[in-house]
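Ligand-bound model needed. fe (ii) ion.
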Amino acid sequence: MDGFSETLLKNHFTLYQGYVANTNKVADALALMAKEGKHGTPEYAELKRRFGWEWNGMRLHELYFGNMAKGGTKADAAPKLAKAIASEFGSLDAWEKDFRSSGAMRGIGWVVLYYDTAGKRLFNCWINEHDAGHPAGAVPMLVMDVFEHAYMTDYGIKRADYISAFFRCINWKEAEARYAAASR
Ligand SMILES: [Fe+2]
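Prediction:
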């Protein structure tokens, strides 16, 4: 993908594999501890708290890589989602400004365009680390990683340049498919 070096992507995939491995490890360990009647222990409680962090680290990466493509696809590949975005944010440009600005916030985490199936509205959400800030019941439409590993190899501390590279690689077709599935 333009704007993303082989080294950066390989490192990122390796990190992702770590989340998959750890999600499985934590799930297995919790099941074993439950069988052994260790529910009341601090070890069980801490692993229970850990599960959402590992799980979201895994799933958010899948969604992130899934909504990027070599060369990207234009927003007109997502006509229904683009219309909903314009209706919620005033215009696609206003949405983009908010999404980029959210990504430029200090801290590590993610920016996710969420569709709330109950209220049928769209929100740009800041997710702290992997697990804090997800709106319950909402479905991710577009996911952007803003952990430092996502850009430092290629962009140093120029996060805005990375965000521009991300925007050039957005696969709007995939986002439209997510919207179609969630808004049925
Ligand atoms: Fe990442």
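The helical segments are 6-35, 42-66, 79-89, 92-103, 152-155, 159-169, 172-182.
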